[in-house]
Amino acid sequence: MTNVKQQPDPKETFDQKDGSLVLAHLLFAIVALFLGGVAGLLQGMVRGGTITLPANIGYYQLLTAHGVLMALVFTTFFIIGFLYSGISKTLGGKLLDSVRKMGWIGFWLMAVGTILGVSQVLLNKATVLYTFYAPLKASPLFYISLVLLVVGSWLSGFGIFKQYFHWRKVHNGQLSPLFGFMSVTTMLMWQIATIGVAATVLLQFIPWSFGWVDTINVLLSRTLFWYFGHPLVYFWLLPAYICWYVMIPKIIGGKIFSDALARLSFILLLLFSIPVGFHHQLMEPGITPFWKYLQVVLTFMVVIPSLMTAFSLFATFELNGREKGTKGLFGWVKVLPWKDVRFFAPFMGMLIFIPAGAGGLINASFQMNAVVHNTLWVTGHFHLTVASSVTLTFFGIYYWLIPAITNRELTPKMHRLGIIQTVLWCVGMFFMSGAMHSVGLFGSPRRTAYTTYGDHPDALFWMPYHVVMAVGGMILFVSILLLIYNIVLLLRAPKGYTEYPIGEVYETAEKTPRILERWSIWIAISIVLILIAYTIPLIGMINSPVPGSEGFIMW
Ligand code: HAS
């Protein structure tokens, strides 16, 4: 199989109709980020003891809005918009009409789902947090809103598959562009993973919330949630990896180290990111140690593609440096484009992913999970991973994607403002996530409103950390405001050309093996791994269920 040139013609402007679809997703995501940010700011200040909320707003209501808007809405809208932009650019120069239509229907289904779901939270009918754990019981409309979100995303995913297979039909025998391949892997993982959440919402939550059945099998619902919940975190990560593998080499003036390695790491992520949900349930009764052990082993397998990614990035940076004449172990650092926000923001994301990933390894180790589970350490972990590594990469993408799709110019002023915004985010997160990690180790629980537990000395000891978390949250909020200001400037930037950066592979890289695009093999292996990891535990949960629980409305 021949490696095709990855790079589209730089003079080509972005298709206007595709641009509108992508822009709609990106702007919807920003609104979600803003509203989620307001909730985050307030809840941080409450927990730090600096404000009290009016009687008609609950802490957990804000926490639910924050989690849903940030973790589910901001990410999903951004990701689908970004993937559609890339498949339009690399798989034919514009979307097929039918694919664009699927993208729009998907967008509207997700938008209606979001508005419905968030309104239920704001009306205080769904204070169940973003994981909507049973036996907390929301209104039926909240669960229906989740169905709309998922079905909308499925439709958008099918659109991506359609564009990709159309490209392959037209370019018979050629290797697909890396961006297209990675988009298909991301959405394939998403479609397989969301079967879990669809099953629990349709078969358990909706009948229970309508009152058609009295009780719910809590363990089964949590297991189906985490079957989805863990690949969900890779659904956030993979688009960031697309930027790191495909865009960053071009932005720094280098090349992609190895197309084959990049594809293999995505395939491994597809295989190993799903059958690992039990590592979120290590402290739960009802699952025997053997199945937890097996899924922990698979969890350590899913670390491998991230280590491959780190290796590939270092190789790209170093080769780029050597080509530019740098010497010594870290000489390559000097020639990286530090004043280019398209590089700076994702790079800070990569840097932060080193301690963030190490935290993940700690969580996955059974004995250490017993120390950190349900403490603020875990909140610190996901603020470093999704809210820093991933989100900073998404910020970096915003800065070039908006002008690229609207045919405007990314000016030096925007680079400067973008870098300031990135630095603010990193500083805010340093305080917030650092304090969360530390105080989590001292036992401070996650998902808890302000309390001193009757002035217990341990709880009083946590308080200064909670104040630092609140200060970090305020800095993060300022960064969100600056991002919005920057996006308004980008939308009003002078007409012109901004590159859609797609890297080329080093000529000396190994040729990519044909087997990496044999989807039937990877889907089959993925299903086998899922069946091995889940069949017996699920049969046990269904055939010998724990006593069902009635619903609880604690707010
Ligand atoms: Fe996690 C909990 C284990 C990665 C998100 N995780 C969570 C939750 C979220 C989340 C949201 O095993 C909480 C869910 C909830 O609400 O309860 N996580 C892991 C492991 C990894 C991992 C093993 N997590 C992520 C990513 C996330 C994310 C990615 C979002 C995007 N996580 C857990 C576990 C729990 C958990 C347990 C349950 C805890 C509990 O008890 O509740 C691994 O995938 C991490 C591998 C990563 C690496 C790092 C590679 C580094 C790279 C950067 C290279 C840098 C360069 C720049 C090149 C090994 C690729 C260098 C330049 C220089 C100049 C130096």
Give a quick account of the main beta sheet: strands, pairing sense, barrel closure: none
**CATH fold node name:** Cytochrome C Oxidase, Chain A
Name the CATH superfamily assignment: Cytochrome c oxidase-like, subunit I domain
Shape: globular
Structural class: mainly alpha
Number of strands: 0
Please estimate the helix content.
over 70%
SSE order, one letter for each helix or strand: HHHHHHHHHHHHHH
Low-confidence stretches: none
Radius of gyration: 23 Å
User: What fraction of residues sit in β-strands?
Assistant: under 5%
Ligand list: heme-as
- Give the class-level CATH name: Mainly Alpha
Q: What is the count of DSSP helices, taking H or I runs of 4+ residues? A: 14
Q: How would you state the average pLDDT, rounded?
A: 95
CATH architecture: Up-down Bundle
- Terminal CA distance: 59 Å
Count of individual domains:
1
